[in-house]
Design brief:
The chain has helices at about 40-55, 80-85, 85-90, 110, 150-155, 160-185, 210-220, 235-240, 245-260, 260-265, and strands spanning about 1-5, 15-20, 25, 30-35, 95, 100-105, 135-140, 140-150, 195-200, 230, 270-275, 275-280, 285, 295-300, 310-315, 330-335, 345-360, 365-370. The chain is of the alpha+beta class. Strand 3 and strand 4 (about 30-35) form a beta hairpin.
Length: about 375
């Protein structure tokens, strides 16, 4: 027999023992007083975490309908993953079953190389147009975060602290990934030299600022068409408003592309505004660029998973060490610890193995120093 955990113990009876095989519950005298119905909380939390990490918000919060024990909130989670974080849109996840490996993609330079068929005379040789692949080597790195949920807090809370804590851990990993993707795409060295452009004039630098010309310079240098323009929320006011005569030009262009012309001809990349923030030294700052210093990334992220994109995130989704499922590549484990609270706590650990990579530095580009 093994001791009953706090999750399995009926609060109306004294601490007891449980038969590990039958599930029968006994009091300290050895008398059978009931049977425990096992619930695999870890599996449920794992599925919950996978939904949160994929941007699927939970549709309900379970509450204690008894008299309130403490004045606590009834919900959890400060971020909306689908609205505030953009990493999944700009560096889509490709699941892999090995931590270390490689993937091949078609080289855009080879795919767009001019290979016009000749007007053949009898016996002439047909021109070759062989596919040349890009080899992307990856090594998925482990990222983990943990939290303790004291039993005293769980017993008094008016909402599910364990699930709320799992939600918090999932968003912590997403926030860290948001920062890694932003660093990758907003670093000039991630792109070929021809795909880098310094803003001719700071977009907040006066009447001569010309973001449209800066953007079209990068569009022209990309080997394949660009689908998205990614900018910090700190940049958006200067891009949308502009200054002086250029302001009218930008605004007119905006109104044009957002109207019917955009729907039919699609002349401009879709604009993704990154709103996520991090707090350091009690001050909040934008992840994708601050009001005093920011770059803008232009990327290719087609709808098809097979088409070549600027960036990919490789995530290990193979088997876990103990064989328990890890939905979406998130490994969650729950265990008892005695370092927190007088009666101990449930410890939660959440881990994922990711690596963000540039697939082709010639597809997409960057505009540096757009504000400052």
């Amino acid at each position: 027999m093994i001791p009953v955990t706090s999750e399995e113990r009926d609060p109306r009876i004294a601490p007891a023992l449980i038969d590990a095989k039958s599930g029968d519950v006994f009091d300290r005298a050895g008398d059978r007083i009931g049977r425990s119905e096992p619930v695999e909380m870890t599996a449920q939390l794992s599925r919950f975490v996978s939904d949160v990490a994929a941007g699927r918000q939970p549709d309900r919060v379970l509450m204690d309908l008894a008299v309130r024990d403490v004045d606590s909130g009834t919900g959890y989670g400060i971020y909306s993953p689908t609205q505030d974080m953009v990493a999944d849109q700009v560096s889509t996840i490709q699941e892999v079953d090995q931590v270390l490996g490689s993937r091949y993609y078609e080289d855009p330079l080879s795919a767009t190389l001019q290979a016009l068929p000749n007007a053949l005379s009898e016996g002439a040789q047909v021109p070759l147009s062989n596919m040349a692949p890009i080899k992307v080597v990856y090594e998925c790195l482990g990222y983990g975060v943990a939290a303790d949920v004291p039993f005293e807090m769980s017993a008094q809370a008016d909402f599910d602290l364990l699930t709320g804590t799992a939600y918090r851990l999932a968003l912590a990993l997403r926030l860290a990934r948001e920062q890694r993707v932003a660093t990758l795409l907003l670093t000039a060295g991630s792109w070929a030299a021809a795909n880098q452009r310094a803003a001719a004039v700071k977009w907040n630098g006066g009447a001569t600022a010309d973001p449209i010309t800066d953007i079209y310079s990068v569009l022209a240098s990309s080997t394949l068409p660009i689908t998205h323009l990614v900018m910090s929320e700190a940049v958006l006011p200067w891009f949308a408003a502009g200054n002086g005569a250029v302001a009218t030009r930008v605004q007119n262009f905006f109104f044009t592309i957002e109207g019917a012309f955009q729907a039919t001809n699609n002349p401009f990349p879709k604009i993704i505004v990154a709103k996520g923030k991090l707090v350091a030294s009690a001050a909040a700052s934008y992840i994708w660029g601050s009001p005093t210093s920011a770059n803008v990334a232009l990327i290719r992220q087609p709808d098809s998973a097979q088409a070549l994109s600027s960036s990919r995130t490789f995530r290990y989704t193979g088997s876990s060490p103990d064989g328990v499922a890890q939905p979406g590549g998130y490994l969650l484990r729950k265990f008892y610890i005695n370092r927190t609270g007088g009666r101990g706590a449930n410890g939660l650990v959440l881990v994922s193995n990711d690596i963000e990579k540039i697939v082709s530095n010639k597809v997409g580009g960057i505009i540096t120093g757009v504000i400052g």
